[in-house]
Amino acid sequence: MGTFKIEGGHRLSGEIQPQGAKNEALQILCAVLCTDEKVQINNIPDILDVNKLITLLRNLGVKVEKLGKNSYSFQSDDLNMDYLESEQFKVDGGGLRGSIMIVGPLLGRFGKGFIPRPGGDKIGRRRLDTHFEGFMKLGADFRYNKEDRFYGVEAPNGLKGSYMLLEEASVTGTANIVMAAVFAEGTTTIYNAACEPYLQQLCKMLNSMGAKISGVGSNLLSIEGVEKLGGCEHTILPDMIEIGSWIGLAAMTKSEITIKNVNWEMLGLIPVTFEKLGITIKRKGDDIFIPAHNNGYEVQSFIDGSIMNISDAPWPGFTPDLLSIMLVIATQAKGSVLIHQKMFESRLFFVDKLIDMGAKIILCDPHRATVIGHNFESQLKATTMTSPDIRAGISLLIAALSAKGTSTIHNIEQIDRGYENIEGRLKAIGAKIERIE
Ligand SMILES: CC(=O)N[C@H]1[C@@H](OP(=O)(O)OP(=O)(O)OC[C@H]2O[C@@H](n3ccc(=O)[nH]c3=O)[C@H](O)[C@@H]2O)O[C@H](CO)[C@@H](O)[C@@H]1O
Ligand SMILES: C=C(OP(=O)(O)O)C(=O)O
Q1: Which helix (H) or strand (E) covers residue 252, if one does?
Q2: What Gene3D superfamilies does its record include (predicted)?
Q3: Ligand that lies nearest to the alpha carbon of residue 175, given by its number in the listed order
Q4: Residues lining ligand 1, judged by CB closer than 6 Å?
Q5: Shared-domain flag, residues 157 and 302
Q6: Secondary structure (DSSP) of 409-433
Q7: Residues 309, 340 contacting (CB under 8 angstroms)
Q8: What does the alpha-carbon distance between residue 71 and residue 251 come to, in Å, rounded to a whole number?
Q9: For residue 313, what pLDDT is reported?
Q10: Residues 118 and 257 in one domain
Q11: DSSP output for 254-277
Q12: List of residues 6+ apart from 349 with CB closer than 8 A
């Protein structure tokens, strides 16, 4: 178990370049299975989850070549399908959430796909019904081995396009179904599709490989099946969750930070949601400039004067992956706010650690926490903590960087899942952080 030691209470300053988006990379890497031709992918973040998926692809027989620091080429022309029945696959597939998205491409291209129960954050129930109901709508047979927690779909006679109304706008579910449907005979219509930038990028990539997907960016996708896809080159967008993390870090440590090349058009409600907490965000070209909040930041209220509420919703709503960061920065705001995590039921329990540090938070129930901000009149106090999940981990790290004294964070592998060389990049802007062991 890795550990960070963090000496808090120092201001940071400088520029930070966001890495490529973790959750886009996981979709895009699975999409390399859609063709036997070479695919080049740029801006792949060097993070634990992505590297685990690359290992899985290698073990499946994909030829992987590193072209540069964050660029790779992949060729899936001679896959070892026996690997899908191996013990090693159970380990590799169960190691991250994103592995679930190999099922769609394999089903579409080879008529069968398997996956052990995928890993990822333990943040509440994470069911996979949407994925498999979608595959069944395309004509696949589904089986689930409860004992081994192993999922399988088969369509020996190929997939047939159909209309489907998804029960929920699942992000990885939509990506998975799209990657199967591009090979289905006829037209598939997916209503209530997820439409995050990750999905838009995936569809853009598949179209550049010869797929015929329309409605990209909306919740109604129409896919005309094709027989074969070809190679392409694709560049992953900057990680919007990392961008949000750096906005929170700057505000909470009263630091002046420029976040470079953020691809502003794809940030949706993220900037305005930070502004609801009173944080100043200046757009400079395609950079975000956060001035030092020397006089703190004040939570806004709604037009009718009622108390501010920040909650998640499927895209273009506010992403659930930034609510933990919103919560931590609210602890130093002037005013009170209700944080409502609607999607996941176990993502707010980390507030206990913040309460230990002196934050004023009432955990109303597993989904809702009321935060009464200190307005920097009382600094958080350093403590020892363990990172329960990736976004709670980065939130605790931000809390530690703002706190008085030296904090210790264990289980930092959770942070490494999604943040590339985090201590190196934070040190470059003045953070006092050390990885021990
Ligand atoms: C690898 C990856 O890309 N992971 C992301 C992906 O996970 P993932 O694709 O696993 O998440 P889903 O979109 O399937 O669902 C997330 C949660 O929200 C619930 N739900 C979803 C849609 C809906 O309309 N109503 C609803 O209640 C689901 O039941 C589930 O509890 O999307 C999540 C939601 O943005 C993010 O937190 C994860 O970081
Ligand atoms: C929940 C997340 O990741 P995963 O779905 O991979 O567990 C996340 O990126 O915040």
Answers
A1: helix 240-252
A2: Enolpyruvate transferase domain (3.65.10.10)
A3: 1
A4: 23, 26, 97-98, 125-126, 168-173, 314, 319-321, 343-344
A5: no
A6: EE-THHHHTT-TTHHHHHHHTT-EE
A7: yes
A8: 32
A9: 98
A10: no
A11: T-EEEE----GGG-TTHHHHHHHT
A12: 363, 366, 388
The CATH number assigned to the domain holding 281 equals: 3.65.10.10
- Is 112 assigned a ligand-binding role in the annotation? no
For residues 203 and 280, membership in a common domain is answered with no
Catalytic residue flag (residue 121)? yes
141 and 246 assigned to the same domain: no
What pLDDT score was predicted for residue 147? 86
pLDDT confidence tier of residue 126, bands split at 50, 70 and 90: confident
pLDDT band for 310, please (50, 70, 90 cuts): very high
Identify which ligand lies nearest to the alpha carbon of 23.
1
139 phi-psi bin (left φ>0, alpha ψ -120 to 50, beta other): left
Q: What distance lies between CA 316 and its chain's CA centroid?
A: 15
Judged by DSSP in three states, 341 sits in coil
ipTM of the complex: 0.98
The answer on 400 and 323 residing in a single domain is yes
Query: Smallest Cα–Cα separation from 324: which of 391, 240, 243?
Result: 391
What is the distance in A from the centroid of ligand 2 to the CA of 320?
10
Examine the pLDDT at 258 and tell me if it is beyond 80: yes
Find tokens 């009622």 and name the residue.
Answer: 306
Strand order in the sheet with 72-75: 63-66, 72-75, 38-42, 232-235
**At 351, phi and psi to the nearest 5?**
-60, -25
Domain end call among 206, 235, 264: 235
CB–CB of 432/7 below 8 Å?
A: yes
Residue 321 is part of which domain span? Answer: 3-19+238-436
The Cα 205–Cα 197 span in angstroms is 12
Q: Measured from the CA of 391, which atom of ligand 2 is nearest?
A: 10
Name all residues whose Cβ lies below 6 A of ligand 2.
22-23, 49, 97-98, 120-121, 321, 390-391, 418
Using a 10 angstrom Cβ sphere, with 0-12 exposed, 13-18 middle and 19 or more buried, the burial of residue 36 is middle
Q: Could you tell me the pTM of the whole model?
A: 0.97
Place of tokens 């896959």: 79
To which residue do tokens 């290992």 refer?
55
Sign of the torsion formed by the C-alpha atoms of 338, 341, 342 and 345 = negative
- Two tokens at 111? 């008529």
Name the domain boundary from 210, 235, 260: 235
Binding residue per annotation — 352? no
CA dihedral (325, 378, 402, 418) in degrees, to 10, reads -20
